[in-house]
Amino acid sequence: MSKYGKEIAIGFVPVLLAFLFFIGVNPVPLLLVAVIAGSLLLMTRMRGGAGLVGGERSKPRAKLPSFLTFDDIGGQDRAKKELIEALDFLVKPELIEKFGIRPLKGILLMGPPGTGKTLMAKAAAHYTDSVFVGASGSEFVEMYVGVGASRMRDLFKEARQKATKENKANAIIFIDEIDVVGGKRDGGQQREYDQTLNQLLTEMDGLHTSESPRILIMAATNRKDMLDSALLRPGRFDRHIQVDLPDAKGRLHILELHARNKPLAEGVSLRKIADQTFGFSGAQLESLMNEAAIYAMRETAERIEERHLLQAIDKVMMGEKTDREAAAEERERVAIHELGHAIVAESVRPGSVSQVALSPRGQALGYVRHNPPGDKYLYTKRYLEEQIMIALGGSAAEEMFYGERSTGSRNDFEQSLGLVKTMIDSGLTELGIVESSMLTKEEYSKANADILDDLTARTRELLAAYRPVFDASLDILKKEETLSGDQFRELLRGVELQPTA
Ligand code: ATP
To answer: Of the spans 57-61, 97-101, 271-275, which averages the highest pLDDT?
Structure first.
């Protein structure tokens, strides 16, 4: 019956109107009331019941489960522990009162995008049995002065109302991208932001432990240095928790969490994938598992194999494969360029090449995937120099075969310059321990040029000795499009190196 409810209603309405007309009742006022009521209902639905502060409106986010626990967050053990300790003031208010502890009003989560800060706030709400109200800093940005401030007021009002309605003693308000509203006040151009921030500070100052519902504000940023000091002073956001990119153990945990609902083939080692994804955020790891599942589905495979996961790493790192068809000559240049990177990589760090690929992906026409030697947070001078040589290997190889470079080395040079800067800033160069601002432009560019010239010469020399490797692998790479690390090492072993002059 309910299945056809809509159709019956559609049929019934005209009949009713005709009947009213027939017995002499004017149906127009009735119609007007129905139209107004219908529009109101539609508008409320479109707002999704989230009121002014439904965080999802301004920024699309990954879909989150309806409730989330700390067990659903991979890695981040230290951050989770710190947060749970901080949350005890909501969970054990009697103890806090007994010891006369000042209530904790704000917790600031700091860290790069996609590391799980929103997940932490949601899990905190579950842990403390609080209602969760979320907003993003960008939602308070308005052209009209005062609108942001009134939205801030509404946010607190909504949290209180929601807690009362759901009969909860606590509410957590989460403000993502707090730096948008909480940036340093300059009292000038940005009066609108200043008013919004002032309103937030006023609301925070008005919070008391004895009040019901108790409100805790959590905020996230990846730019703590941008925040106004008034926000960070004791009594406001005075608990700061760093949410970092996950280490190898954390990455494995996150991969395992996102593999829970996916059919993995026997023998697939997520540890290996975790080892290969240094620098990935939780969001990137989630995307990796998802992309691997899509590759498996496209191939109509029964399960997700290791190759799908490896393809997904490339996809997340470099973008989707493109069908840009390069001319034969250009393809050969790209192959030589990539082999240049791979040869230097394998000779300075044996066993480090995981794949050489000649297929265009994202902006790149080819790429070399490296096996990271393990998570690294400290770099020696030698390591950085080797890294620069690997980056320069592509352009040096092009020069060796064609006598000139191409625009394909732009990213490599950017990377090299960044590494040279790290060397200078870390006191690893002839300049000794210096700060960049102490150097004149000329001194800086001379140091830069000296380092890069020396490393370019060493790279050229190294590649010249390996010239036969290019000859041995070029045709195979052009035909196969990819060479696995093992295949490539096999080729390297099989050729006789040329003695250098
Ligand atoms: P942003 O700073 O961009 O707002 P964020 O740090 O708040 O990012 P989240 O929104 O919490 O990041 O994470 C996005 C998605 O990434 C999550 O929905 C989840 O799928 C995945 N994710 C991120 N970190 C983790 C983690 N530690 N464990 C499990 N999944 C994670």
So the answer is: 271-275
